């Protein structure tokens, strides 16, 4: 009896001490962020004129989020991918400045490639690179990581500055659809004449509909758990619509910075600075407004597409949404 009365308070004190230690260590992290936020913001709560001051925090948080999502067992299939030849083909190498750039179409990749081609020295300035050479990696002096030996690949992955750019996953798909199947300014007839008919044959719901490929057909193809069957026939053209996970393996490769298309005005100069090349090149001017997420446009494209098909599409791209901090589009799913 006597003993028990003595033991209880001790047990409680110990438990409380342990709990408070955990709470304190959490608080410490949050306080650090709060203090940094406070230091870098003006008394009115608005960001200082030079908004670049708060950036290191934003980029740290992005990398932290990726690390956390990569550890989530329930998302393993959607966040992990082997560092295959397909991935190594997506990564371009600037040896002179020790930079690796993973190509993710529809977020201004041509501009980044031009910047790196100039840095590698094949052309003296961005304006002097002929359009037909930008994507010709035999001639533009911007090799793919896959063209190196295993040891050379590992060395570069370990020591180089590595980055890529992402944007809202659904807006990206809309952009790819428009660019490849509707307008196709680059004249790539195989999208409309080979790929589109392949998708329509397998995924068109309304068999009496004779129009060319519709966004709905595209959504049903991408959301099909057996999409790989068609992917294999389309070859590398699928880079325009496979997940960022499949393109760049963000859980396997420790990237240095992830840029967001939506904040490119800040992110582009930050990447140049972190890569140590801001004194050598600048990112071309970004037309105002083009990088802003447009919910009206997204709603417009998904109008009339069944919830089931949209949910299947989300199920495929959930890894990209979670890894890069894009909000789940509940307005489309529910
Ligand atoms: C993950 O993918 C593997 C192989 O494709 C499959 O066998 C497994 O069931 C998947 N796991 C989940 C949780 O989806
Ligand atoms: C199928 O497509 C045809 C041709 O565009 C259209 O007239 C018809 O209403 C469509 N049917 C359904 C169920 O949407
Ligand atoms: C958003 O998209 C809609 C429909 O495509 C377009 O009419 C509108 O101008 C866009 N808004 C902005 C701010 O770009």
TrEMBL record:
Q: Which gene encodes it?
A: CHST10
Annotated Gene Ontology cellular components are: Golgi membrane
Regarding protein family, the annotation reads:
Belongs to the sulfotransferase 2 family.
Which EC number(s) does UniProt give?
2.8.2.-
Keywords, comma-separated and alphabetical: Carbohydrate metabolism, Glycoprotein, Golgi apparatus, Membrane, Signal-anchor, Transferase, Transmembrane, Transmembrane helix
Query: From which residue to which does any coiled coil extend?
Result: none
PANTHER family to which the protein is assigned, alphabetical: CARBOHYDRATE SULFOTRANSFERASE, CARBOHYDRATE SULFOTRANSFERASE 10
The region annotated as signal peptide is none
Its membrane topology is listed as: Single-pass type II membrane protein
Q: Name one GO molecular function term.
A: sulfotransferase activity
Q: Which GO terms describe its biological process?
A: androgen metabolic process; carbohydrate biosynthetic process; estrogen metabolic process; proteoglycan biosynthetic process
**Taxonomy, superkingdom:** Eukaryota
* Main localization (coarse): Golgi
Q: What protein name is recorded for this chain?
A: Carbohydrate sulfotransferase
Record's subcellular location? Golgi apparatus membrane
């Amino acid at each position: 009896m006597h003993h028990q009365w003595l033991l209880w308070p001790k047990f409680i004190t110990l438990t409380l001490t342990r709990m408070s230690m955990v709470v304190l260590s959490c608080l410490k992290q949050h306080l650090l962020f709060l203090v940094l936020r406070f230091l870098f913001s003006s008394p009115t709560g608005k960001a200082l004129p030079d908004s670049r001051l708060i950036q290191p925090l934003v980029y740290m948080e992005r990398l932290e989020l990726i690390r956390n999502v990569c550890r989530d067992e329930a998302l393993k299939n959607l966040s992990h991918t082997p560092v295959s030849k397909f991935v190594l083909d997506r990564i371009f190498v600037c040896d002179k400045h020790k930079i690796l750039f993973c190509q993710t179409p529809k977020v201004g990749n041509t501009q980044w490639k031009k910047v790196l081609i100039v840095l590698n020295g094949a052309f003296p300035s961005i304006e002097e690179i002929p359009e037909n050479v930008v994507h010709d990696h035999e001639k533009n002096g911007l090799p793919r990581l896959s063209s190196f030996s295993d040891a050379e690949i590992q060395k570069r992955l370990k020591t180089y500055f590595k980055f890529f750019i992402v944007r809202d996953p659904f807006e990206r798909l809309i952009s790819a659809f428009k660019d490849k199947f509707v307008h196709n300014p680059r004249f790539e007839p195989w999208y409309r004449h080979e790929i589109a008919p392949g998708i329509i044959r397998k995924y068109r719901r309304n068999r009496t509909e004779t129009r060319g490929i519709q966004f709905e057909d595209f959504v049903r193809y991408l959301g099909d758990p057996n999409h790989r069957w068609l992917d294999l026939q389309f070859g590398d053209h699928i880079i325009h619509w496979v997940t960022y996970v499949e393109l760049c393996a963000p859980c396997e490769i420790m990237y240095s910075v992830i840029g967001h298309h939506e904040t490119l005005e800040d992110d582009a100069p930050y990447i140049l600075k972190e890569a140590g090349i801001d004194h050598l090149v600048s990112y071309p001017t970004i037309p105002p407004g083009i990088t802003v997420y447009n919910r009206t446009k997204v709603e417009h494209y998904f109008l009339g597409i069944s919830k089931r098909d949209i949910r299947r599409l989300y199920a495929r791209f959930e890894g990209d949404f979670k890894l890069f901090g894009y909000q789940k589009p509940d307005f489309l799913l529910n």
